[in-house]
Amino acid sequence: MIQQQLLRRVIRPNIRAFLPQQPVPNTVRRRLVHLNEVKLEGAADNAFNRDRLAMKLHAEKSSELWRKLSIYVCIPALILASLNAWNLWNEHWEHWETLPPLDQRPQYSYLNIRTKKFFWGDGDKTLL
């Protein structure tokens, strides 16, 4: 009982000193508060809290930069790369269809050189 009263009278009022004194911004405004809008007063105005606030603002700017890069650079780049790969794939198979079948192609002496026979089958065919 005494601990609860102590909690209500001592700790909770001190916690309020660390909370922002401004009203909650509406949804039209930016989500995070800027440095010139934040007023650290009383016990909250110390080097540690100022440093944390500076890091928070730096994180806000960095996350905004990476969000914009992800949306406006990475996604279009992925779309363009996918279209390029799709076109190259189609061109490859269009070219492949113009070639003669594999059994009708010439067998050159420098192709399929075997220094040692494969240990399966007749020793001349690969697994594929």
Give an overview of the whole structure.
With 128 residues, the protein is mainly α. It contains 2 helices and no strands. The radius of gyration is 35 Å and the shape is elongated.
Topology, pairings included?
Layout: H1 2-18, H2 47-98
Kindly state the percentage of residues in helix.
Answer: 40-55%
Distance between the termini: 80 Å
Q: Provide the gyration radius in Å.
A: 35 Å
H/E element order: HH
- Tertiary shape: elongated
User: Structural class of the helices, strands and pairings?
Assistant: mainly alpha
Please outline what is shown here.
With 128 residues, the chain is mainly alpha-helical.
Defining traits:
128 residues; mainly alpha; 2 helices; elongated
